[in-house]
Structures are given as C-alpha cells and as structure tokens.
Design a protein that fits this description.
The structure is a homodimer. The first copy, chain A, starts with 7 loop residues before the first helix and ends with a helix. Chain A contains 18 helices and nine strands. Chain A has one domain: TIM Barrel (Alpha-Beta Barrel), CATH 3.20.20.210. Helices cover about 50% and strands about 10% of the residues of chain A.
C-alpha cells in the first residue's frame, strides 16, 4: 500500500513552492450554485441545514464535483458557536443573522465544554466529506474568530461594528472575558474538527478593519495566537490559515505574532505585502476581487495572471480576497480555475 | 512690519519636526457642538448652509473659539462638486445624501469651467475666515477625491460602494472618463480655494477601502497625482494632504506615487507604517480612533501619549483617523487638545 498523494494545499501550507499553486475559493459552496439552492430548499432553516451532516456534506462536495478545486471547506457558519454557547441565533430571510440577548459571560463560560458536544454534527459532516473526497484534495475546517463572533453577539446582528468597537474602548475587561470564552470554545471546536477529518484549519476574522493597532493586538492577535496554542497543546498538527480581513498594514503585525502557517490576504493586499509575508516564512492565500470574478472578461484573466506571476515564486494558495458572490456566473469560476491549474476549459467541462 | 508667525500646520507640512505637533480634528466643526446645531437650524437645508458664506464661515470658526486648534478647515461638503457639475444633490434628514440621475459624461465635461464659478461661495467663506482667523492658525481647503465622489454619483447615495466597484471592473473606460471630469473640476476648485485664502489643501478619499492594487492605482493614485499636478501648474504652492482612507498597505503605494506633502492616516494605520512614511519624506497626520475620543477616559489619554511618542520624532500633525462623531463630549476634545498642546485644561477653559 502506497501513501496517498499529499494534497497540494497541505504542501503549500508546509512552505513548499509548487509549480502551480493550489486553488479554492471562499464560499465556493453555496448560493452561486443552482444545485445548492435546490438542496437548501429542502431544509427548514439555515441553522438546521448546517446541523444536518448529510445536507452539509453534500453542500461541501457540490463545488468539488463541478470544479477541480484543490480543497473543500466544510459547510457551516461562524455563528454556530454562540448558539452552542447558549445565545439564540436565527436567520431572517433576506436580512441575515439575528441573535438574542447576550447571556452573562459567566453563564457562557460554563457552557464551553458542552458547546463542543453540541457541535458534533459538524464533525460528522467532516467525517462524511473526508470519506468521499479524493485523497489528493484537502479538507478545511474553520471557525469565526473571537472578535468577529463577539461583534455579532454584542450587536445582535450584522452591522458596521461601531457599537462593538465602542464597547472595546469602554468595557475592555468585559470584552476580554467574552473573548476568552470564545477562544476556549473555538479551540475545542477546531480540535474536534481536526479529529473528525479536517486537515487544515482556518480562522475567519471577517471584521478586522478599522481597529487601532493596540486594540488589534488585544482583540485579534492575542486571541488568534491563543487558539493556535491551545489547539497545538491538544496534539493537533493540522496547519492554520489566519484571515484578518481588512487589517491593512496590520497584517504585518498579525503575521509576525500569530503562529499560523498561512495568512489569507484580502482584496486590497498589495503584491509587495504578500511577498514580504512569504519572505518571513508564511504561506499566503488570496486575493482576487470577488467583484472582478463576478464581472469576468479579459480584466479577470489579466488579474489572475498578475497574481500568479507575483506570488507563485513562494508558498501560495490561489483564492479570492472575500467570498464568492451569489450572482457569480459558474463559467467565470471555471475559467479562473482553468487558468490557475493549467487544465483547458474543455477538459474541465468534460469532468 | 514683521512677517506673521508661520502657522504650525504649515511648518509641519514643510517637513519640520516640531517640539509638539500641530493639532486639528476632521469634522471639528459640526454636529458635536451645540452652537453649530443652533446655527444650522437657521438654514433651510444643508446645501444652502454650505453655500451661505456667512453661516459657513461661522461654522468654520466655532471650534476655533472653543479649542486651541492649530488649523481650521472650511465648512463645506464633498458633494458640492457634482451639484456644481449639474447632478442634483439633496440631503434626506437622518439618512444622508441623495443624488439625481447621473448626466452623460460629455455633459458633465462641458460644465467643468462653469462649476468653479458656481462654487464661488466657498471661496467667499474662505476669504471671510482668513480675515478673522489669527495669523498663526492655518486655514485648510478641501475637496472630495474623484473616486469617492464618483461612488456617490454612480450609486445615488452613500452605500457599501460595491455597485461602484463593480462598475470599475465592468466599465473601466466610462469610469476613467468620469474621473477625468472630476479631476479637472476638483483641480480648478482647489486652485480657487487657495486663491481665496486656503493655505493647505486636503483631498478626502473616504472610500479607498477594498480596492485591488491595480484598480487603486488607476482610480485613486493617478487622479490624486493629476489633481496635484494641475494645481501646481496653475502656480499654487499650498501644500497638500492626501487621505486615502481605508487603503491599508496600499497607503505605501500612495505615498510613493502621489506628490502630496502630507499623508493622512486612518484609525488602523500602524506605528511602523507612519514612521516608514516619515522616513520617505512625508508629513503624516492621524490617527486617533474617533470612537475612543467619544469614549474618553484613561484609555484615551494613554493612546494620545502613544501616538505622540511614536510619531513626534518626525513631521507629524495630530488628528483623528476619521471625523468627530456627533455625540462626542466637548470635554474629551478639550482634554486631547490640552494633552497635545501641553496647555493645562484650566487655561483652555478660561480662553
């Protein structure tokens, strides 16, 4: 019996510079695919859908059948954690998430251990996907970062985060206590995901933008570092990708202080910044504009070539700077994947 | 007759490192001051208020009487330019700006020369303020940057700019033509402001965030550089402050390519980034969090000290990273200004 081929994504995260980078897209599963919309219509609500391993595994695998992505990412949501900790979460159709009243932090802290058990369905999804996925394609687990999840918990919905940022200034000790609970719950959740089949772990800090440097260190850098350390202490060796979206120049601080293997760059990352991180030993991921992916055309091809040329001389994972938009034509996705993988479009269509 | 004292702001913009930096705040005039709200209530609408030199001059001077700021900024709005070019602009109470249908770009281009004459009221405001302001306090003129103004012109209101960014990808030639009109109108407007008494000129790119590097170069860097060049070609020597808000690591590209004397940094700028720009010969401005200014307390004092210590060894203008929020206590503003200027609070209160 020979060892299975090492997935390209894991080779990149181990620091290898490959002849062509692995490619996957944030939100590659979901609303841009008609087969997803059909599947989703069979579940009563979005939370139930995420907690249904059969459906969530199918959603995870749908884009893998359609496109030759090098990695799948488990279909789940960053707000499953607050729900597992005891805060009510639901989704208003067409409006996004809503959360109930924030329980006292002592109460949340008492639910950390139980929260992981309440998220067992996501482990089950991972196990199902790992069984079906080809061995040369990696499976990624993920969680929302503590600050990003806290903004929803504090504000009760998606927002411009100014109320949460004001809270960070006015009530630093209370926020730190909440972040600590989230660090502990998230680390346990990611350990469970790795033990269920996730081969890489991504931390999504969707709302890192606009934070002063000292606050960024306190509420982004330290919690991310703590999660990685706790997961490592549990014996998990899966590599991490950190995504401090919107952090701008502070991405450099992040990369220097958080022991992640990979740093995901958002749409406005500069070529020079990416190269700087590679030179510091990080694998970078990113940073195609999801609006350009949706627009398509020769401008899209040119930008893909620019990114490939700029970053392929170091460890690099091709991806977007943000998630696939719902109205993105599937042919644009196919076109980019063909350009990155070097497989002709006709070969893709035949797969 | 001796020459009047050179305003501290202009010395900093000339590259001088001062014993303490000049200080002024974005939106220092306006809704946070009760005297402003009283004044504003006397005008029928916001556009009329901006176009009334007596009222606008009074609004400009109000914060100068209350706080020992080193610079005043003319009270005006970035949307006066599209209005002067023939696009309808109005403000919905509690909602913000609304714009009428975008006229064809050829029609806008035909209005560039006339637009400057239609903005003569703002020149009159500047002349009035310059007469009343002490000679050691500088007067700043400003305009919105072409891309930021274009986002409003294209979308008809404030937004998340995704429609305008999509337009930038899908219709690059049309956007370039619109930006060219705005560059020409803005350069003429700033020349007029300088000739009316503005001693420094600021370009506000409020919505530079999230742009891919190549798009940022095309729609931010080049138009800013063109404005500076056109203003210089008209014989105006007033220094420029460019504010590419939200540009993150791309601020470095901006500073390297736009011949502004000063670069305004937003809330999330890093200390290292500011020092890098100073080392490259730029005067930096920023970057206190307006939410922290509103929150006040010992955290505010500590952050002010951090910024002063970090950046006062090079040319530096103390300011916020974004505008003063409407519900900011005046005593917090006074407290920060006292800390920066070294004047005790009691002396300020007595002024």
């Amino acid at each position: 019996m020979t060892a299975p081929a090492q997935p390209r994504l894991l080779r990149a995260l181990a620091g290898e510079t490959l002849e062509r980078p692995p490619v996957w897209f944030m939100r590659q599963a979901g609303r841009s695919l008609p087969e997803y919309r059909e599947l989703r219509a069979r579940a009563t609500d979005f939370i139930a859908f995420c907690h249904n391993p059969e459906m969530a595994a199918e959603a995870t695998l749908q884009p893998m059948r359609r496109f030759p992505f090098d990695a799948a990412i488990v279909f789940a949501d960053i707000l499953l954690i607050p729900r597992a900790l005891g805060q009510e979460v639901w989704f208003e159709a067409g409006e996004g998430p809503r959360l109930g009243v924030l329980p006292p932090v002592e109460r949340l802290a008492g639910e950390v251990e139980a929260s992981t058990a309440r998220l067992a369905d996501i482990g089950e999804t991972l196990a199902r996907v790992r069984t079906e996925l080809e061995p040369d394609r990696a499976l990624i687990g993920f969680a929302g970062a503590p600050w990003t999840v806290a903004t929803y918990m504090l504000e009760g919905r998606g927002s411009d985060r100014s109320a949460a940022r004001a809270y960070a200034h006015a009530h630093p000790a209370e926020l730190d206590a909440l972040l600590k609970v989230l660090v502990d719950a998230t680390a346990r959740y990611l350990v469970m995901q790795a033990r269920s089949g996730a081969q890489a772990l991504k931390i999504f800090e969707s709302w890192a933008e606009g934070l002063p440097e000292d606050v960024f260190e306190r509420i982004v850098i330290r919690p991310h570092a703590a999660i990685v350390e706790q997961v490592r202490a549990a014996g998990v060796t899966a590599p991490f990708i950190g995504f401090p979206r919107g952090a701008g120049a502070l991405v450099d601080n992040y990369a220097a202080q958080v022991p992640v293997e990979g740093v995901a760059l958002d749409t406005q990352a500069s070529i020079a910044q990416g190269r700087r991180l590679q030179a510091q030993g990080k694998t970078i991921q990113g940073a195609l504009d999801n609006l350009l992916l949706r627009a398509g055309g020769s401008g899209l091809d040119a930008r893909v070539d620019t990114l490939l040329e700029a970053w392929s001389s170091g460890p690099y994972i091709f991806n977007l700077g943000h998630g696939v938009l719902p109205d993105t034509p599937a042919e644009n996705i196919a076109r980019v994947v063909a350009r990155v993988t070097g497989k002709p479009l006709s070969a893709l269509a035949a797969e």
